[in-house]
Amino acid sequence: MGKSNQFWMRGHLSAISLAAGLGILGAAPALAQTTPAPYAGDIWTRSELLGDPGGVRSALDNHGITVSINDSENLLDAASGGVKNGATMQGVTTGTLEVDTGKAFGLQGGLFHITGLQLHGQSLSGPYLDNLQAANGNEGEDGSWLWEMWYDQSFDKGLFDIKIGQQSIDNEFMGSTYSALFVNTMAGWPLVPSDDLYGGGPAYPLASLGVRVQFKPTPNQAILAGVFDDNPGGGAFGDDAQQLDRNGGKFNLNTGALWIAEYQYSATPFGLAGTYKLGGWYDSGAFSDQRYGTDGLSLADTDSNGNPKMHHGNYSLYAVIDQTVWQNAKNSSQNVNVFGRVMGAPSTQNFISFFFNGGVTVAAPIPGRDNDTAGLDFGIGKVSSRAAGLDVDSGLPRQNTEELFELTYQAAVTPWLNVQPDIQYVVNPGGGVLDPNDGTHNLRNELVIGARMSTTF
């Protein structure tokens, strides 16, 4: 399998990341800022399936306590191409507890947050596909996990805040509001950090201890910066982080530090809202050369000592744009939006050197369906020239780029239930890897069809 599939589980919940993006310049990720919608109403109109049983939710709200449960189930079928054909059902249930310390006991500006995950079912990417861009952003190994546990304190009416604890940085950094609609993993947590950081980095379904600060010099600008442990599961590069940390509570502090910063700017060119982000990360850990050993020979050379040359540190730069390009003057719910994310990393110590995804989303695409969203996404991942050179040295096909096309439609059946049919087509899977069932040719292009169902309880 392609090297990237060591981290195929790295992604994050589409619904969560979409909400995070809607907060664009907020002081904390969406899970930390979501104000509960009205619980009243019948089962077809209320915001949660269970409503406000016995008035418990309302009573907790009055004391600054919010409890929420969300479930995402994904039925996907590898219809053609890939390693083999077949369908799987895989899902994740997310439980969140938040305490507004101002309402709870008078500590204004504070928020305590804890989130747990329960993953279940069978993933599609491992047994059926060999992609750089894994098919399902909810994927992970079966089990129950602590995801996040942090405290955020704001100062000077939200001008500055600091967050300390176990954090999943995909909820705040590198995110795109409109890209987050899509089912594919890399529409959430992108391909470069997924493949080039230890264990895929501190992102769903694991997190890392760290500190994040945010400063808002003006209402339309924000500067975020943080430092985190770079290896949520511990162990060597390439190890399965979830196997090393079976419950999310390992709190590893024994490897390098991951520094990340992002500048965010919002504007309304031609009266239409847009958000623009520039950022980068630096990892102080040690990273293996993708082609050469300490003796200067290719790692594929029979005379090589087999010990890869080590590089101290690793980095990436990125940019993100979310821009509304049209809005119906008579119905503000109906709009067309474009998005794009681009990032790169040095070839010497990284398997992936370039990633881009971009596309278009249409809100309220059908008259009378104001809460539905349709979208088309294109993604491209490039295997680094150094890693591709090792392929050539080894007598294997030279890996290059993989292209992904995804078409999706998220239908709001009720305020608490979304059903999302989805189609993905992958060109040159794995950037061009051999078919394990027939070593005479590369994996054929893949067609994945299915649906996601998201429920808020």
Helix/strand layout:
Elements: H1 14-22, H2 30-33, H3 56-62, E1 65-80, E2 86-100, H4 101-105, E3 110-121, H5 125-128, E4 143-155, E5 160-167, H6 191-196, E6 208-215, E7 221-229, H7 241-244, E8 257-267, E9 274-293, E10 308-327, E11 335-344, E12 352-363, E13 373-383, H8 385-393, E14 401-414, E15 417-427, E16 434-435, E17 438-442, E18 446-456
Textual characterization of the structure:
The chain has 457 residues and is mainly beta. It has a single domain (3-456), classed as Carbohydrate-selective porin OprB (Porin), CATH 2.40.160. It is built from eight helices and 18 strands. It has helices spanning 14-22, 30-33, 56-62, 101-105, 125-128, 191-196, 241-244, 385-393; strands at residues 65-80, 86-100, 110-121, 143-155, 160-167, 208-215, 221-229, 257-267, 274-293, 308-327, 335-344, 352-363, 373-383, 401-414, 417-427, 434-435, 438-442, 446-456. It has a 16-stranded antiparallel beta barrel. A two-stranded antiparallel sheet has the order 16-17. Strand 6 and strand 7 (221-229) form a beta hairpin. The protein is globular and about 70 Å long.
